[in-house]
Amino acid sequence: MSDENMKEDFFLDILDKQYEESNNKQELDFWFSISKVILESIEIRDLNKISQSDLAQKMKTRQSVISRFENMGRLPNYDFLSRLSIALGHKLGMTLYGDFMAVVPADKQNLIKTMAKKEQVATDKYVQNLLEESINRARLNNLSSLNILNTAPNEYESPGKMSPYSSSSSNFTENKYGLLIAS
User: Fold this and answer.
1) How many CB atoms within 10 Å of residue 25?
2) What is the reported pTM?
3) Long-range contacts for 67-76 (Cβ within 8 Å, ≥24 apart)?
4) C-alpha angle 112-115-121 in degrees, rounded to nearest 5
5) Which of 96, 139, 155, 171, by CA, is between 20 and 30 Å from 68?
6) Which of 4-13, 36-45, 141-150 ranks highest by mean pLDDT?
7) Does domain 3-101 have CATH number 1.10.260.40?
8) Secondary structure of the chain in the HEC alphabet?
9) Are 47 and 88 in contact, with CB atoms under 8 Å apart?
10) How far apart are the C-alpha atoms of 98 and 96, rounded to whole Å?
């Protein structure tokens, strides 16, 4: 593990401990998402050797604005975040379902882009398909381990009806993303 990763892990451990001991988790949750965006922007800048001044120029703003943002000196608005994302070569994504959101680690993003391009699908769609495939496989593994994969519920016990959880290959096929499709 590199010194950089050790420092980051140590920092995150401290933050986790402070969060657990906090009496004001709601305020910390408020700042969590923006903190992640700030850390991501710094990570992208570092990986691509982009200075605050270079980033400011791409965003048509001043270096001091970037500095204030990175030091949490001001809350960014949507326009700022959109311009930041574009300047760093990405597309801004937002959701109200943050607790169900995942981000592909920076060191895996080029692999995902290459795979999406090979499949001739947009990167975000490819990632969504991978997530759905993973959920589908986990669901099947859980059902199988609980021994209910081939056990039909009462409503499916009549002849000619199959459980939607049946593993019979005649009822489901996998598409090119590994998703089960009723056949």
Assistant:
1) 11
2) 0.62
3) 69/38, 69/41, 70/38, 70/41, 70/42, 72/31, 72/34, 72/35, 72/38, 75/34, 76/34, 76/37
4) 100
5) 96
6) 36-45
7) yes
8) CCHHHHHHHHHHHHHHHHHHHCCCHHHHHHHHHHHHHHHHHHHHHHHCCCCHHHHHHHHCCCHHHHHHHHCCCCCCCHHHHHHHHHHCCCCCCCCCCHHHCCCCCHHHHHHHHHHHHHHCCCHHHHHHHHHHHHHHHHHHHHHHHCCCCCCCCHHHCCCCCCCCCCCCCCCEEECCCCCEEEC
9) no
10) 6
- What is the location of CATH 1.10.260.40 in the chain? 3-101
In this structure, what are the phi and psi dihedrals at residue 178, rounded to the nearest 5 degrees? 80, 10
159 is written with which tokens?
């002849």
Distance between CA atoms of 167 and 153, rounded to whole angstroms?
14
- 178 vs 166, which has greater pLDDT? 178
Taken in order 168, 169, 172, 177, the sign of the CA dihedral is positive
pLDDT of residue 70: 93
For the ranges 4-8, 125-129, 172-176, the lowest mean pLDDT is seen at: 172-176
Take residue 133 and report the two structure tokens written for it.
């495939």
Please give the backbone phi and psi of residue 181, each rounded to the nearest 5 degrees, phi first: -120, 130
